[in-house]
Amino acid sequence: MLSQPSLTNAYALALGLVATGSLVAAGPCDIYASGNTPCVAAHGTTRALYNAYNGPLYQVRRASDGATSDIRPLSAGGVANAGSQDSFCAGTTCLITIIYDQSGRNNHLTQAPPGGFRGPEANGYDNLASATGAPVTLNGQRAYGVFVSPGTGYRNDQASGTARGDAAQGMYAVLDGTHFNGGCCFDYGNAETSNQDTGNGHMEAIYYGTCTIWGTGAGNGPWIMSDLENGLFSGQSPGRNTGDPSINYRFVNTVVKGQPGQWAIRGGNAASGSLSTYYSGARPSAPGYNPMSKEGAIILGIGGDNSISAQGTFYEGVMTTGYPSDATEAQVQANVVAARYGTTSLTSGPAMNVGSTVSLRATTPGYNTRYLSHTGFTVDTQVVDSSSSTALKQQASWNIRTGLGSSDCVSFESRDTPGSFLRHFNFQLVLNPNDGSQQFGEDATFCPQAGLTGQGNTLRSWSYPTRYFRHYNNAGYAASNGGVHSFDATGSFNDDASWAVSNALA
Question: How far apart are the first and last CA of the chain?
Fold first, then answer.
């Protein structure tokens, strides 16, 4: 454990060097290099991870014409230029297509291909993340993270310089500590090159979530663990490690490192304080994990065999060669804290005030007398006017409630069926009674945005931010602007996904 003077010096290094153009004079990868454990992969959509890095952080592709744009830091070593993305994506939607490796080894992350599990996109590929699903601030400057919904994943199966076999490596990742589930597996780190489960010990990646199929920590989670293939481990035992606590920080710094015969899990609040060690000791006692058989691919948001049922949000992370010291990691933690991650609004456009009752009118030419309504649990659009029955007007009226899955956004409660809410199920909008589950709450939460056509609101799904309220053949969907479903068609998408919001019809 570091002495108090050592910790003080680590924080002085980072906190004393905050500037507006470049966050700190030494980025995380500069710190690792000074500790003789240099980065071999460095991924961050929010900022540069070397003090001199001014290359691209990530690439976005817009739906309107398929054009792409690289998003760079505002200055060398600085925060991402979110304004350039906002300008490029104005009036349309954008996806993150590449997360660039800043280490110079070209270990870029791109759309994950199929493996033991197939993704939901064409030819079994995984989904790409929305470019706007995870807005944050760093030292007051807006940036965007990578919001991973189930089915979203990135990968590099031909990485250079990453650990193979039992070689030593270190990793950290800054994540949203409030975005998780029990699916397998929200990982960042070292995985199989074949996209298949090739056996125990063929992975070493950071895991974050509440999956209880294998090991767990104390409490109900979420936990920082390591995915070592065929097991999420919180310590030497394949079961519970009570020294691995449940984490509830909004921004969490997760650390996993391993070397022959030894590995460790560490973590802490990415916004303040120091790292704690949750496990440090011998490799797992189960067969196949000592020695390890790491293969060196890099994954984000998925398991090594392309397991795709997990969710989470990634902001930045690195992989190193060698086993970083606790002292080096303390300096990296201080650097992360000095970046001052903060929250920002998830909504834009005309306000939708909690407690109000509204009606949503389609704006697509030829359909602009139709309102979002329901018939039983089916959600559709219906023509409603002053001569319509009170019952129909009520079916087309919605009470605005605080978002069931996120208080930053809203949920739509039926005016005529109290306790029932609009939600997406298999990406179709339905009206269901609230069952109180995490899944229901997230599927029933939507974030109002300025209308894509410049009028009214576009209503983005919180849990799948590539998807928006859309009417298609007069039915309601959570649709993406292009995709494998018929209701994802790009034609008239902006019109179909823009809604005029008015006082309730009844």
Answer: 64
Q: Provide the CB-side half-sphere exposure for 362 (13 A, CA).
A: 27
Q: Any idea how long the chain is?
A: 506
Q: Catalytic: which of 229, 244, 316, 488?
A: 229
Instruction: Give the DSSP H/E element, type plus range, for residue 440.
Output: helix 438-443
495 is catalytic: no
Residue 235 has pLDDT above 60, yes or no: yes
Q: Which residues contact 397 (CB under 8 A, 6 or more apart)?
A: 357, 358, 359, 415, 416, 504, 505, 506
Q: Please state whether the peptide bond connecting residue 284 to the residue before it is cis, i.e. omega within 30 degrees of 0.
A: no
As given in the structure block, the two tokens for residue 195 are 């996209």
What H or E segment, with its residue span, contains residue 316? strand 312-321
Checking if the pLDDT of 16 tops 60, the result is no
Average pLDDT, the chain: 95
- Give which of 138, 12, 10 is closest to 75, Cα–Cα: 138
How would you label 91-117 residue by residue, b for 16+ Cβ within 10 Å and e otherwise?
ebbbbbbbbbbbbebebbbbbbbebeb
Residues 284-321 have pLDDT tens digits of: 989 999 999 999 999 999 999 999 999 999 999 999 99
- Asked whether 226 and 236 are in contact (CB, 8 A), the reply is no
Q: Write the DSSP assignment of 319-359 as a string of letters.
A: EEES---HHHHHHHHHHHHHT-EEE--S--SS---TT-EEE
Which residue among 30, 227, 244, 305 is the active-site one? 305
Tokens matching residue 308:
């795709």
CA-based angle 188:334:220, to the nearest 5? Answer: 50
Tell the residue number behind the tokens 């200055």, with chain if given: 75
Which of 39, 352, 321, 280 has the alpha carbon at shortest distance from 168? 321
Task: For 373-417, give the secondary structure using H, E and C.
Answer: EEECCEEEEEECCCCCCHHHHHHCCEEEEECCCCCCCEEEEECCC
Instruction: Read off the amino acid at residue 360.
Output: L
3-state secondary structure of 144: strand
**In the predicted model, what is the mean pLDDT of residues 112-127?**
98
On whether the CB atoms of residues 55 and 102 are closer than 8 A, the answer is yes
| Contact (Cβ atoms closer than 8 angstroms) between residue 428 and residue 476 | yes
For this structure, is 204 an active site residue?
A: no
Cα 81 to chain centroid, rounded: 19
12 pLDDT exceeds 90? no
Neighbours of 287 (CB within 10 A): 9
Sign of CA dihedral 419, 222, 298, 329: positive
pLDDT band of 164, cuts 50, 70, 90: very high
CB atoms within 10 A of CB 399: 18
Q: Model's pTM, two decimal places?
A: 0.95
Paired strand residues for 472: 475
Calculate the CA dihedral of residues 193, 60, 309, 377 and round it to 10 degrees.
Answer: -160
